[in-house]
Amino acid sequence: MIGVSLFLVFLVLMVAGVPIGVSMGLSAAVAIALANLDTQWFGLLAVPQNFYAGLGKYPLLAIPMFVLVGIIFNRSGVALRLVRFAVSIFGQGPGMLPLVAIAVAMLLGGISGSGPATAAAVGSVMIAAMTRAGYPPAFSASVIGAAAAIDIIIPPSVALIIYSVLVPGASVPAMFAAGMIPGIMVGLAMMIPSVWLAKKHQMGLQEDSMSRPPFWESLREASWGLAAPVLILGGMRLGWFTPTEAAVVAVFYGLFVGMVIHRSITVRDLFGILRDAGELSAVILLVVALAGIFAYSLSTLGIIDPITEGIVRSGLGEYGVLILLVFLLIFVGMFLDGISIFLILVPILLPIAAFYQWDLVWFGILLTLMVAIGQFTPPLAVNLMVSCRIAQVSMERTVRWVCWLLLSVFCVLLLVIVFPPLALWLPRTLGY
Length: 432
Known about the structure:
Number of helices: 21
Strand content: under 5%
Number of domains: 2
Order of helices and strands: HHHHHHHHHHHHHHHHHHHHH
Helix content: over 70%
Shape: globular
Radius of gyration: 22 Å
Number of strands: 0
């Protein structure tokens, strides 16, 4: 009954519009109080203790830094320079601008690790250009919203950091390395239907006002942005700094590029940048802290074991349970962001992974791919919502285009399920 009360209060608060972090914290506090009726106030001491314990983890220090990095690079005009460089490589014509948008989103994913931030940065540059070239706004919004979902997979990913904090057997470097190949595969898979749809429906036939820039000039302008992922990931691999220290290095690198190289950020801009980063980081970390109380109530009150027992003894078998989890995560991903999904479901799913002896790094990449699919699946897709707002179209108009992109990413998910080395080869090769 306590477990039922926990989930019932949580769902009621969510339906009432209460923020997800507050919903988790309040429902967990109610469950803890009900379980300690005789010593109610003493039992409720677990709430502040686990609130602090949820934040007292060293890898979490990287989150506000990577959030700040993403905002700095978005404000410094790096996205526009990367777009010019990509156009100089792929040129123009039917299907080329969508390909450019996806490639730039992959590059920005190696800097900020935030899907909505990338959707805003790339969408503000590419949607207008694609509209001038003759692409329907709904198609442009679909491509940008889907491409931004890659950022949850390609390192540095805030969601992968959260997963590594929740799962002791999956370190941050291992998760970053494991996400590299599947992330690139997702980007390449999205390019295929994007180009095919553009050619089939004869999009982009009008002359684009953005002429093809010279290759070497655009490469020189984009070189500082291209070097950022190399600095972040290469420095971690060479042992120069840890993932948390890499985030701090990336902040100073971004400030140097924005204030000294491109001179698109001034001292006056710093207050607004730090304020936006502080607000977003506070929201993320508050959700993490409140989710710690929720996870404590799940484990301490014995709620996880019956759920795990019911799933593994359902008769579905290993692959049947895996398919069930695929559809569950994709469905939940339509309504919640990746961080919230991990904080709510990973404590419940870990015993299932342990029962079937799944590799925890591989399992984390699977969960991330499932969540990525949900983030651009209508009706409530976070990334798609941002791109549709920029394109000024309703989400309903994107369904005919998004379904093809969803299918392409789903194929990558199936490949990673069938061939686990796609996710595990690189971390094992690097010794993580």
